[in-house]
Write a structure and sequence with these properties.
27% of the residues lie in helices and 26% in strands. The chain is of the alpha/beta class and 333 residues long. Helix 5 links the parallel strand 10 and strand 11. Helix 3 packs across helix 4 and helix 6 runs parallel beside helix 7.
Length: 333
Amino acid sequence: MKSIVVNGGYGVDRISLLEQDIPSINEGEVLVKVVAVSLNQLDLMLAKGAFEKPLPHILGSDAVGVVEQIGSRVTAFKTGDRVSTHYIQGWQKGELKPEDLKTRLGIEQRGVFSEYIAVPEEFLVNAPSNLTFEEVAATPLAGVTAWEAISNIGELTAGQTVLLQGTGGVSIFALQFAKAKGAKVVILSGSDKKLKTAKELGADVTINYVSEPEWAGKVLDATAGLGVDLALEMSWTGIAQTLKATKFGGKIAVVGMLGGISAEISVLDVMLKSISITGVQAGSKASFEAMNQFIENNLIKPVIDKVFPLSHSNEAFRHFDEGKHIGKVIVQF
């Protein structure tokens, strides 16, 4: 079988296909024939040397496929079931615990960008019935992160307002979830083309942060001077603007660090406005299943930017690294 790996050094140009043996399963595991995977910023970080994983390293946290074989003690799945992987495998429900981080796919655990993967049954999730394989592949990390931020941390409800940054996978899922909940969405991008797509997906207010560098004022104008109830912080380069755009007692869910791992922040603004800031690392399996049910109930369709065949996986990573995508980039196996 073929796996997508980074090998011979770090960098997007070091991503290649590696031939490996199909894994065997034990009595509690499931052999999944992978149909599609989706790319995330995490995959780029790993390919570029984050965490300094020994090489060759199999990439990937998001995969969907069909159950090919089950172990003798497996009861939750049967041959032919459509299943997806879960990023922090050990986080089954409740609060995230430090030991759960040892089960992150693609980092502490073997990545899932392979034609076949062997997975303990408790680490798999049934796929939503209304989605294609490619759409399901988009959900495990970006979808669950957006769901965790919108529903569990932000507790967003109808009539409230959320601020989103960019049009990548997390932001677009958050836009779809927020609108399905009856909330108002303000979204930022440096591309008018991307903002047009966001508007078509239901965004109420679109702001180009390049032409409007002091965009927090526009957010306040759109919220009668109050600010947003919830902001999903993706960059950190504009955290001062995010704080200004967030209402008194509002919440900021940190879902990314595209602007770097360090930032200067006004503690005074946080205190004076009584703002809560919470980091988000995807969600539990229970949260994943709740999201899938919400997707089915509200007939939500993940936004797919482009689909590449496995033989063009290098091209898929280059396209993703350029940051021109809207929604998710998929590789078909």
